[in-house]
Amino acid sequence: MPVYVVIGASRGIGYQFLKTLSSQDPSNIIIGTARTVDAAQEKVAADGLKNVHIVHGDMDDHASLTAAARKTAEISGGVVDYLIANGAYFAIPCIFDVADDFVGKEDLFLDELKQIMRTNVAGTLFAFNAFMPLILKSSIKRVSAISSAAMLPEYIVGAEDPTSLHYALSKAALNTLVAKFAARYKQEGVRFVSISPGWVDTHADMPKEFMERMSKPFYRWDKTLKGPISPAQSAEMCLKVMDDLREEQSGEFLSQHGNHVWINGK
Ligand SMILES: NC(=O)c1ccc[n+]([C@@H]2O[C@H](COP(=O)([O-])OP(=O)(O)OC[C@H]3O[C@@H](n4cnc5c(N)ncnc54)[C@H](OP(=O)(O)O)[C@@H]3O)[C@@H](O)[C@H]2O)c1
User: Fold this and answer.
1) Rounded distance from Cα 187 to ligand 1 centre (Å)
2) Gene3D superfamilies in the record, alphabetically (predicted)?
3) Is residue 88, in this structure, part of any structural domain at all?
4) 265 pLDDT tier (thresholds 50, 70, 90)
5) Best mutation site among 131, 200, 239 for ligand 1 pocket (most ligand atoms within 8 Å of CB)
6) Is 204 exposed, middle or buried (0-12, 13-18, 19+ CB in 10 A)?
7) Which of 59, 86, 95, 215 maximizes ligand 1 atoms within 8 Å of its Cβ, making it the mutation to test the pocket?
8) CATH number, position 56
9) Above 70 in pLDDT, residue 264?
10) Considering its fold, how many domains does the chain have in total?
């Protein structure tokens, strides 16, 4: 009866983790945190997901994560085996801006930097801290953060992609945070990993032009790329990466394939 917690599980890959885990084994106990509990609970009920519990949690509010861990302990009997920090802020207001576009827009740069670091980096630290007492009671002890290959210098330079500046900075910091946690909890046997989920088809509601503009560098980087993978494909692969993670890999940044092949052939 492994216990899974997914932070930021209301939609996209996070919600897919709930669906996949629920279908993989009816004995899994799955807790998803959401900022809007009612809407997430309605989705879970409509999809008939068994053993999925939704509790309130906002990565921008550390007290809510502490409360989520308390509620989780009541549901799970005090143990969490797998913790996945998935939620993210994307800094959409300046996602296509490049470094020098911020000349004259310094306040926008700083405001978005503050928000993205707060959610993606500080929010993950708060989530890991809140749930660590429950992880330490597990015999499995796996913790992951969903990161992005967008932070890789080889991608940024190879794809000639100067956009998504804030997002890439936050994911670089997130990977460092995960390595720091791996060092901190090595003696306790907790295995940490940052996982790039691949390019995943989660933003169907965004305008077509936006998605085309965003994905152009992906095709520049990987000439074999056919398009995004489905959330179901990605979630299954990411869960396998956590399961297969060896002790000596703790703190690494891996792709959905469990290695350094980031999209298809790159
Ligand atoms: N899709 C891709 O191609 C791709 C590629 C690389 C990496 N990723 C990473 O994969 C993860 C999931 O992405 P996605 O594509 O599934 O995105 P998404 O569909 O936009 O979902 C984002 C999730 O993050 C949650 N969230 C945002 N701010 C939060 C906060 N302050 N506290 C708690 N939850 C918060 C959202 O909750 P609300 O509903 O409350 O807003 C939502 O559940 C992210 O870490 C992203 O960076 C995605």
Assistant:
1) 31
2) NAD(P)-binding Rossmann-like Domain
3) yes
4) low
5) 200
6) exposed
7) 86
8) 3.40.50.720
9) no
10) 1
Residue 171 designated active-site: yes
Backbone phi, then psi, for 59, in 5-degree steps?
-65, -15
Q: Confirm whether 167 is a catalytic residue.
A: yes
Distance 217 CA to ligand 1 centre (A): 21
- List 82, 167, 185, 266, catalytic entry: 167
Amino acid type, 264: N
What value does the mean pLDDT of the chain take? 97
Q: For residue 261, is it within any domain? A: no
How far apart (Å, rounded) are the C-alpha atoms in residues 242 and 193? Answer: 7
Q: How many CB atoms lie within 10 A of CB 42?
A: 12
Q: Which domain holds residue 202?
A: 3-255
User: What residue spans of the chain are helical by DSSP H?
Assistant: 12-24, 37-46, 62-76, 106-116, 123-135, 153-158, 165-184, 208-221, 231-244
Task: For ligand 1, atom 8, name the residue with the nearest CA.
Answer: 148
In tens, the pLDDT along 21-66 reads 999 999 999 999 999 999 999 999 999 998 999 999 999 999 999 9
